[in-house]
Amino acid sequence: MSEAAELKPQIKQMIVERLFLEVEPEQISDEENLMEAYDIDSVNLFEIVVGLEEVFDVSLEDADFSLETFSTVNNIADYILQNRG
Fold this sequence. Notes:
mainly alpha
């Protein structure tokens, strides 16, 4: 199993817990637009970023902060793999 494949269930679990979503983590598609599918706003996005920093030991630089980076589980996994401490 690839590193990204191992990260994705953890990412989904963290998103569900942080945002109190009423879905099971495995119901989140790797490629769906999280902002649209779960009505994520800037406050929710901040919660996701804090969760990523805590759970995956990544530090988000201001230059990296974009909706595209966090729009899908795949994009989040790629970001973690490229920026892990």
